[in-house]
Structure formats: structure tokens, C-alpha cells
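Quick one, C-alpha cells below. Sequence please?
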């Protein structure tokens, strides 16, 4: 059974999300990721953001683990909330920067 991975992090890191999605997929994992990148140019309203935040928590619920896209160690307040949510729901959390340094 393939593991389900949810990618979390700032949507300003579109290229890094894309690369992590490719790498995890090629490792035989099912990847759940943001579909809208507001900080990378996708136009969204505040209402859209609130709905997307709820949707992303549901993706975390579906996942076996979370991979945080923390470019240069950056983790914003929304991502911190997602990490806390994941941990409270027993989801293991990995970090891109830690994997890159191994």
C-alpha cells in the first residue's frame, strides 16, 4: 500500500513544491499538495484562503505523513498551524531542509 504524503509550506515556494511532489511520486508515494499558490501569483480572496486552509487540513487528515517545504528553514504562521494540527492528529512530520542536509 502506497503511503500518502501531504506537502505543507508557504505557497511562495512553487518550484520546491513541484520538485518535492515529483520526488515523492517517483518514490511510489501518493502526494497531496496545494492546488492554488496565492503567494506565487494565483489570485485568491480572503474567503478563498479560508476555504483553502480548511481543505488543506482535510488533506492532512487523509495523509499518512506530512512533508514541510521549509526553504531556507522558513516556516510561516499558517504552516506552523498545519504542523501543530498534523502532530495533534498523530501524523509524522518531515522537513525538506533536514532531508536536503543528509
Amino acid at each position: 500500500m502506497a503511503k500518502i504524503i501531504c506537502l505543507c509550506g508557504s505557497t511562495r515556494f512553487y518550484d520546491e513544491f513541484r520538485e518535492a511532489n515529483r520526488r515523492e511520486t517517483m518514490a511510489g508515494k501518493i502526494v497531496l499538495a496545494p492546488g492554488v499558490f496565492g503567494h506565487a501569483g494565483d489570485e485568491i480572496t480572503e474567503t478563498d484562503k479560508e476555504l483553502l486552509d480548511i481543505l488543506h487540513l482535510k488533506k492532512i487528515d487523509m495523509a499518512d505523513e506530512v512533508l514541510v517545504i521549509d526553504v531556507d528553514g522558513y516556516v510561516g504562521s499558517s504552516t506552523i498551524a498545519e504542523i501543530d494540527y498534523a502532530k495533534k492528529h498523530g501524523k509524522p512530520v518531515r522537513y525538506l531542509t533536514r532531508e536536503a542536509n543528509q
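The two ends are 26 Å apart (CA to CA). The CA atoms of residues 9 and 75 lie 7 Å apart.
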